[in-house]
Amino acid sequence: MQAVTSSLRRTAIRTHIRPSKLIQQQTRTLTTPATTANMTTGTFRYADPATINRSSTPFIKSWSKVDVDYSSFSRVSVSKPVHDLRAALESSPSDFGVDVSGFALYNHPATETSFTDERAIWSGYYAEVEALLRAKLPGIKRVEIFDHTIRRNTNNSARKPVQQVHVDQTPAAAATRVRRHVTPAEEAEKLLKGRYQIINVWRPISHPATDFPLAFIDWRSTSPGDLVPVDLLYPKRRPDEDNEDRGKEVAPGEETYPKTEGYEVKGETYGVVPSEGHKFYYVKDMKPEEVVLIKCFDSWGEGLQEPWGRGKKGVAGWTPHTAFVDPATPEGTPGRESIEVRCLVFYEDEE
């Protein structure tokens, strides 16, 4: 189990060891090609399958925290090649897309650029995100934006880049999101019978994301056996607070990382275990004018069955992703700043 601190940046990862409770991280390194203009290497932190607890009991079942890069299970570090998505798109653009590979890159400058005013994000940038989705994904009838996270790799940031390969929602968590954010309840149940997705809309803020870039695994190189359900813990709210999580981020003290007191289970993600076949992509020096759509769930995803959906062959169902350290990052590079907006996307009914 590990936590990343900003003082470590691109040099090392500190392990918080408490011999009575924690398991020492193991590292496995694969042979990788040399860094080129169209490729780099990265060390990716996967869930260690030997330390995953598959219990259904909260706080015994494996968990991760939403407010810090910390988990109840150990992680395994694996070195892998990472392909530059821009170069791949130039040579074979039809090989990528949210339904094909699970992710898509677009040049789409935003009117909102500072992302320091929560209300401006809700009222302005959310509308930009919805317009982008409707322009790029045909057949949308409804978009519900339910969450966003701003990450800054600075000492005082409440949210920093996360170095753990993961998928934001399991099918059960996706259905829960629909029931939580769509009213009335009858409408939610109706929408659950049709096609819906959870799309993460990700972009850098203010400068290129050279520091701790985001990598994503091509869905076609994954299998369902790579995914492990993990409870997502949120800080408990006071009884007089609303149920809104946005804009309330507070960085916890390191001494609280292994503790579950004051937390509750409010979601479920997929941890990802290592696989030799995983193929990683990133956008080298991704600019604020660029945006990536990352599919976290699709009720039409291949292999999905009732009650979670109706899988269709060849349709990407999920996209594992993570921040990573690019060894080619120059010294003095500004810390990464980014915003990710999570969207429920509902489609017109089939004819």
UniProtKB/TrEMBL annotation:
Signal peptide: none annotated. It comes from the Eukaryota. Residues 237-259 have a biased composition (Basic and acidic residues). Residues 235-259 are annotated as: Disordered. GO terms for molecular function: oxidoreductase activity. NCBIfam families: CmcJ_NvfI_EfuI (NF041278). Belongs to the asaB hydroxylase/desaturase family. PANTHER family: 7ALPHA-CEPHEM-METHOXYLASE P8 CHAIN RELATED PROTEIN, BLL6449 PROTEIN. This is Uncharacterized protein. The lineage of its organism: Eukaryota, Fungi, Dikarya, Ascomycota, Pezizomycotina.
